[in-house]
Amino acid sequence: MKQSVLPLLACPHALGSALCGGMLTVSSSAGLPTRLAADDPDELLEGILRCGSCGTEHPVLCGVALLVPRPEEYLRKHQDAILRDIDRHAALPPAARSWLTRRYGGARRQEEYGADFRYSQQFEDPWAVAQAMTENPEALYGPFAGWLRQASGAGPYDVLSDWAQELVPQRHLALDAGCGGGGLLARLAPRFASAFGVDYSFLAILLARRALLHRPEPERTYCLTLRRGQETERPLRAPRLDHSELVVADCAALPFSSGLFDAVCSSNVVDIAGIDGPLDEAVRVLRPGGALLFSDPFYFRDGEAPPGDPRQAIEDGLTRRGLHVEQRQDAVPWVWATYDRHWHLYFNYCLAARRA
C-alpha cells in the first residue's frame, strides 16, 4: 500500500452507529515489523496502520491493508485462507507469518471471505475468450457465437466506465466499492486522476494488486481452463494503474472521509451485501454533484431480496438519500466462461444517479 494515500483514508472502526473516521499513521510494532518495498520507499509491504482517535490497529500484509471495522475478528476468521492465498500468490516474511499465526491462530475458524472471479471474467473480452477456447467457435456455439461477438465491449463494466466519462465533469478521484479482481477499476481509473478499489476479499485485492499495480510483482499471464485437466496460458493485458490503490474494506463501512469522491461505483454488490449499508456508505463518501454508478443482476441470497421490483427498491433508496437518477439501462449482458462448454450469463440493471 502506498503510504502517500494515508491522508485520504479514515478509520472504519465502528463506534456505536457511526464510524470512527480517525487519521491513520504507520506505527512501529514489535510483533509485525514495518517493511517497505526495496524499489519504492512509499510502498508499505508489512506494518501497522494505527488510528490516532480510537487506537484500532489495521495490519498490512504483502501490501494489502486490512481496513475493515474489526480487523482482529477478520483475521481470526480468515487466517487460514489468507495464508493459503499468500503462499500461492505472494511471500510473507517469517517474522510477519509468526506474528499472524501466534496472535490469531488459536481461535481461527474455517471461513472463506468470498472470491468468485477469474482473470478472464475481469479483463478479457468474451468473444476473445471464445476464440481461445476453440479453433472454430461458430461450429461449437452456433448462434451463441454471433451473440458473443455482438456483446463485445457492451458489458456492465463498459457501461459504467462510459457513463463516468460522460456524466462526471470533474474526474479527480473515483471509487470502485466491491471491485473484485479489478475489471471495472481497470476501465475506470484511466479516466480519473486517481482511483481506489475496495473489496472484502483478501484474495481479490491481492490478485488485483498484482494485475493492476504490479505489486508485489506483476501478473502478466493467467491460465484459462478449457476443460477439466486442460488449460491454456493467456496474456493478461491490463494497464498498470500508477495512480490507484486497492485495499480490503467493507462496502458498508468504507475507510474514507465523507464527500471525498467524484464518482462511486457499485457493481454486483447489493445482492451480496444488502442494499441499505452499501448505499448509505456510497452516498456518504460521494461529494455533492458527484455520480453514483450502479450495476447488479439482483441474484439475492435467500430471504434478502427486497419486496417487489428490485430496480424500484434501488431507485427509491437513492431518492431517499438525495440522489436523482439520470441514466438507466436494463438487461446489460454480463457473461464469462467457466470452461469451453459452460458459460455464465446474467442480465444486469445499470443506472447513474447524481447527488444533489
Characteristics of this structure?
single chain; alpha/beta; 2 domains; 356 residues; globular; 12 helices; two-stranded antiparallel sheet; Rossmann fold
What's the gist of this structure?
By secondary structure, the protein is of the alpha/beta class. It has two domains: about 5-105, no CATH class; about 120-355, 3-Layer(aba) Sandwich (Rossmann fold). Helix content is about 30%, strand content about 30%.
Verbal overview:
- The structure is a single chain.
- The protein is of the alpha/beta class and 356 residues long.
- It has 2 domains: 3-104, no CATH class; 119-355, Rossmann fold.
- Helices cover 31% and strands 31% of the residues.
- The chain has 12 helices and 16 strands.
- The protein has helices at 71-89, 94-104, 119-123, 126-133, 137-141, 143-151, 156-167, 183-188, 202-213, 270-273, 276-284, 310-320, and strands spanning 14-15, 18-19, 24-27, 35-37, 40-51, 57-61, 64-67, 173-177, 194-199, 221-227, 230-235, 244-249, 261-267, 286-296, 323-339, 342-355.
- The strands form 3 sheets. Strands 3, 4, 5, 6, 7, 8, 9, 12, 13, 14, 15 and 16 form a 12-stranded mixed beta sheet that branches. It has a two-stranded antiparallel ribbon with strand order 1-2.
- β10 and β11 form a beta hairpin.
- α1 runs antiparallel to α2 and α1 packs across α9 (202-213).
- It is globular and about 60 Å long.
- The two termini are 33 Å apart.
- The mean pLDDT is 93.
